[in-house]
Amino acid sequence: MSDEKTALLVIDVQESFRHTPYFEESGLNTYLSAQQKLIDGADTAGIPVVQIFHVDGDHAFSEENGFVRTLDGIQINPAVTFRKNRHSAFVGTQLDAWLKENRITRLIVSGIRTEQCCETTTRHGSDIGYSVDYVTEATLTFPMTHASGEVFSAEQIARRTELVLAGRFARIATVDDVLAGTKATA
To answer: What's the DSSP call for residue 114?
Structure first.
């Protein structure tokens, strides 16, 4: 078990996504189950849960529409909440300062979208000195269409994300892996 102090990042797990043209229900229930297990496990271990919301001028992500709130199906009582308007949860927020103030050196990354805000936050966190566990099963994404017209499934995108993060920016881990290695930060 590591002596590092750990925090769980729950990135962009918000109702906004249900109001986008690319949202798909496929994989949602499996994701919700893994995300909730991770949140509950962190709470049990005394690991602070950090909730991050994406807010910008897009209709679905605008504060005024009421969709910038926890995704239905998730119960969370975060230690702290940040709002961001960039892909990395570190840009334009006080996340790094909060983590340093709480002497946290290890991050567990989860949330929505696998290849965007979760991956970008992982890379950024690693680059500024945090050790990162990336929990793919507790991330969610949606199919994307390449400029060539080829459609990449959510599963293909998740595998690609694991490929580019593993051993460079993060340890790829399951919910059970990270919960087995957690230690209360207090």
So the answer is: I
Q: Token digits for 174?
A: 């399951």
Positions in the chain whose pLDDT score sits under 50: 1, 183-186
Q: Please count the CA atoms within 13 angstroms of the CA of 115 that sit on its side-chain side.
A: 16
Let me know: does 169 contact 142? Beta carbons within 8 Å: no
Q: Structure tokens of 125?
A: 């966190």
Q: How many CB atoms lie within 10 A of CB 151?
A: 10
**Confidence (pLDDT) at 6:** 97
Q: CA angle 16-17-18, nearest 5°?
A: 95
Q: How many CA atoms lie within 13 A of 18 on its CB side?
A: 13
CA distance 132 to 112: 17
Calpha distance 172→174 (Å, rounded): 7
- Give the chain's end-to-end CA distance (angstroms, integer): 15
pTM: 0.94
- Answer yes or no: are the C-beta atoms of 11 and 63 closer than 8 Å: no
Question: How many DSSP H helices and E strands does the chain contain?
Answer: 5, 8
